[in-house]
Write a structure and sequence with these properties.
With 177 residues, this protein is mainly beta. It has a single domain, classed as Sandwich (lipopolysaccharide transport protein A fold), CATH 2.60.450. The chain contains one helix and ten strands, in the order αββββββββββ. It has one helix spanning 7-20, and strands spanning 36-38, 41-45, 50-61, 64-76, 79-95, 102-113, 118-129, 132-142, 147-151, 164-166. Strands 1, 2, 3, 4, 5, 6, 7, 8, 9 and 10 form a ten-stranded antiparallel β-sheet that branches. The protein is globular, with a radius of gyration of 17 Å.
């Protein structure tokens, strides 16, 4: 079933897109601010355009931050085009477009693709924003079309494996964090 098949899912998309709608969601390659990477160790394969960082990895650009146990950066002749992060969990944080609050996303795998204009959160994905929570096994965010899609995991008997959301009431103190 697609995310926008019913009114509740449409509401969720509106809530998430309102906060995730900044065209600079993820790392902004057109920014004047550099992306700074720190880690316990690094390996650069300049011929293939792949840099692998391991051990308490932190990528920072302005107020956007990605932390993980392992991060792989892929670059082409045009520059950085893909970031893959893995952790228990990996964590992505960025101020919301309105400037009030922060998007705090966690997943075991986080992938950012410049060519696809897509952020993907996989395995135990949770996105929190101003008290609103969205959980799923896989959450995709198309940064250009501003479309969020999500899927639950297969029901293995350990839990329902469904997509879940918590939406704070407008007057809640959590909605203004």
């Amino acid at each position: 079933m697609k995310l926008l098949d019913n009114p509740m899912r449409q509401l969720l998309a509106i809530i998430l897109v309102a906060g995730l709608s900044s065209p600079t969601l993820a790392f902004d390659l057109d920014s004047d601010e550099p992306i700074t990477v720190s880690a316990d160790s690094a390996r650069l394969d300049d011929g293939k355009g792949i840099a692998t960082y391991t051990g308490a990895v932190e990528l920072v650009q302005g107020k956007t931050r990605l932390t993980a146990e392992r991060v792989v950066l892929y670059r082409s002749a045009k520059g950085l085009n893909r970031i893959e992060a893995n952790g228990s969990p990996a964590r992505y944080q960025q101020p919301v477009a309105s400037g009030e609050g922060e998007t705090d996303a966690k997943a075991r795998n986080i992938t950012w693709s410049a060519s696809d204009k897509q952020l993907t959160f996989e395995r135990e994905a949770v996105i929190e924003q101003n008290g609103n929570i969205f959980r799923g096994d896989i959450i995709h965010y198309d940064t250009e079309q501003r479309v969020v899609t999500a899927a639950g995991s297969e029901d293995t008997g350990a839990g329902p494996g469904r997509v879940e959301m918590v939406i704070q009431p407008r007057g809640s103190s959590n909605s203004t964090k």
